[in-house]
Amino acid sequence: MTGLADLDKNIWGLLETIFAGFEGAIIIDEHGEIMLFSEYYAKEMEIQREDVIGKNVLEVFPTTRLMEVIQTGQPIIADRWELLGKGHIVSRIPIEYQGKVIGAIGVSVFPYLQMQYYINKLSTLSAELSYYKETVKRLSGAKYSMQSIIGQSEALLEAKEKALKIADSTAPVILYGETGTGKELFAHAIHQESPRRNGPMIRVNCAGIPENLMESEFFGYEEGAFTGAKKGGKPGKFELASKGSIFLDEISQLPYAMQSKLLRVLQEKEYERVGGTEVLKADARVISASNVNLKKLLQQHLFREDLFYRLNVFVIRIPPLRERIGDIPLLAEHFWQQQNSQNGTRIEGIATEAMRLLNNYAWPGNVRELETSIERACLDCQSGIIQIENLVRFGGGKGSDKSNSPLPTLKESRESAEKAAILNALETAGGNKQKAADYLGIHRTSLYYKMRELGLI
Fold it and tell me: Where do the H-state alpha helices sit in 193-278?
């Protein structure tokens, strides 16, 4: 065969049948002669197909680019083309035989206006998808940043500095701190400062899940996995946290049997849904928190040693409020301004004597307790300056002045906390003072000095 004209009539009949299904189709030979012309084009132009076949394509369609395809041998895909004032999206493809271009095919994909409809539809769907993504991010993303952690004390700034340093890593982090110190704030802030900030931040309270439901909550379940299982199954917390972070609060409360399953996720980066057989990949940064030293649980055989070392890669200690008394005025101001915004109070400040009482209290409930106390005082005061009576009216007397209060002074509170920390470290270290000093992050000489100062030796 040397050209399209040499094709058998049966082949042309087959081509006619094939291209009849297109809204528009035309075939020309290497000279531009029209060899095939679809019924659609004939109707659009109000001409007879027989009058077009055999003519040069430029006589019928002066603006066509089919001859350009013949000359270059390159296709022109999805190009807009006007036909009698109507826009079409057309693709033009060269026909080659033994390395030589012997013709070209032009096919109308669909009318331009129809394409515009789909473009607009896709644009609308894209906007909706962006909206839903933002909504999901807002609902499951981090609520707090480093700026949300208020205070300028040395102990707090040290904890924030550590958190910023390790935020870029994907390694596990464990946060130690008493109840109410702000461990969850730190977890959210670490996520917010990490490369995973655009992913979800999923919180799991390990103490709040019944043991028999824990595996399905962590890893999800398949349909029919157990009585009462939802149709279609349910994703677990690790699945929801994919590409983001998962915060395991109160990790010390994790049942021993469940610890081995969590260890597999940390080691192998995989898990299975309850009742499922498919192995799913875990892609979530693990941030855990505890108000109990896990080393103590190791000695009591309540926590797996291998899991402990997997979780204990980066450690951050969140200081209790009694160790950052200087931050109380900043925190108190933040909380009364928050109440003004949320509850419509018009608080302007806190009286000197009232602030002195706040500074002298030991705050066993830490920042959370301070926030509650300020909230009560704001609702009691309503406007102006918070006075002593606003603090003590609903506070059970805990805000009393140190001169007539059974509450310990700041010095006494610090000594008590230091004594408890040293005794706990010595117990964990089995009496080994060097190990105890290492746990406390101080030199052994400093430990001996402190023990003498506190009357422990």
Answer: 214-219, 237-240, 256-268
